[in-house]
Amino acid sequence: MSERLTIRSYRGTYTAEFIADYAATIREQLRPGDHLVVDRNVLELHAPLAVVIAQFAKTVLAPTESAKSYDALAPLIRELIEQRFTKANRLVAIGGGIMQDITAFTASILFRGVDWLFFPTNLLSQCDSCIGSKTSINFGAYKNQLGGFYPPRAVFIDVRFLETLPDREIRSGIGEMMHYFLVSGEGDLAFAEARLDQAKRPGPVLRELIHASLAIKQAMIERDEFDEGPRNVFNYGHSFGHALESTTDYGVPHGIAVSFGMDLANLLSHHLGLIAAPLRNRARRALARVWEGTTLPAIDVERFLAALARDKKNEGREIKVILTRGLGQMFKTSLTLDAGARDLIARFFDERLYLADL
Ligand SMILES: NC(=O)c1ccc[n+]([C@@H]2O[C@H](COP(=O)([O-])OP(=O)(O)OC[C@H]3O[C@@H](n4cnc5c(N)ncnc54)[C@H](O)[C@@H]3O)[C@@H](O)[C@H]2O)c1
Ligand SMILES: [Zn+2]
């Protein structure tokens, strides 16, 4: 397994590298004048981190959605300008997707763009968001409304950070990875199926899965960095997953919600005659290993459908979702909410269709 992915992007190539010791890498890579944006929780959980970053200018933040909002960025930008941060210095994010988005967005607008580095510390950011260039921040209560495409110069992945993640965050990350494996096709799904049980604790198997999902994502973002067409397939499970997150007031972690979303997409695909039952059942059994132990609360289907209709990937009044004709054959389509589809979605939650094979 190659320890380093070299990703082509519109800003030149950047690397995502598996490292064995974040402290050593920080000592090697950081330069005086660099400014760190650090997740407060990670700093508390990983005592050696505080020692190794002591000499650097830093902003320590609580990872909340309000911290990654337009209004909350002003103090960080003011501090950077007043402390004479220059275009020669780098921003360095240490944390999950929230530190990433704050740092990437700020880097993209400061002095028309400064370089940034990323040490992703949770599974969702290590297996997915750390590559792909997207930067999004919130505007008030409106999530991810502002942003662009601005990749880091380098990503350093130390899987030992994952040792302090709660079990459901590991499952959530595995759920996120499952969407890459299913979209990729038979080979990657079989690879994942054989490893799922051992991946629930941080270690070499989980690292292999992270590498495999990044490699799948890399191939796609090099083709469609700006999400103009082919990359849309990675929205598989996501429209339904986002609606589920919203309907449960974010009580279901993202990757777990996406796993339910993929099963619902597969059921609808089967309902439309696009896939045969055994395929849906096989995927369901793999996905069930992600969500087992999660009990979904009662879902208000009207609220779920309203959230689905508000998805920002929709076009006009059409609800756009990713359905499938088979492994590796996901495609974007308009969802027609006729009586049959509504009934299936209602039964998915009310009768817990996700618990049973067809
Ligand atoms: N830019 C992108 O491509 C992209 C992609 C996906 C999601 N996002 C954004 O990222 C955010 C969600 O990302 P996230 O789930 O990584 O959120 P996050 O950054 O809030 O991290 C989730 C939680 O994990 C904790 N955490 C991080 N590392 C830890 C560790 N090693 N041990 C214990 N706890 C740890 C954090 O403190 C936080 O409480 C959302 O705002 C979403 O919009 C961005
Ligand atoms: Zn996702």
Low-confidence stretches: none
Output the strand order for the largest sheet.
1-2-9-6-5-3-4
What is the succession of H and E elements? EEHEHHEHEHEHEEEHHHHHHHEEH
**Through-space gap between termini:** 37 Å
Instruction: Tell me the number of strands.
Output: 11
Instruction: Give the overall shape.
Output: globular
What profile does the largest beta sheet have?
7 strands, mixed
What does this structure look like?
The protein has helices at 22-29, 40-45, 47-52, 73-82, 97-109, 123-129, 167-184, 186-193, 204-223, 238-247, 254-271, 277-291, 301-309, 339-350; strands at 4-9, 12-18, 35-39, 57-61, 90-95, 115-120, 134-139, 142-149, 154-157, 320-324, 330-334. The radius of gyration is 20 Å and the shape is globular. With 358 residues, it is an alpha/beta fold. The protein is built from 14 helices and 11 strands. It starts with a strand and ends in an 8-residue tail after the last helix. Strand 5 (90-95), helix 5 and strand 6 form a beta-alpha-beta unit. The strands form 3 sheets. A 7-stranded mixed beta sheet has the order 1-2-9-6-5-3-4. Strands 7-8 form a two-stranded antiparallel sheet. Helix content is 45%, strand content 18%. Bound molecules: nicotinamide-adenine-dinucleotide and zinc ion (ZN). Residues 176, 238, 254, 258 line the site of zinc ion (ZN).
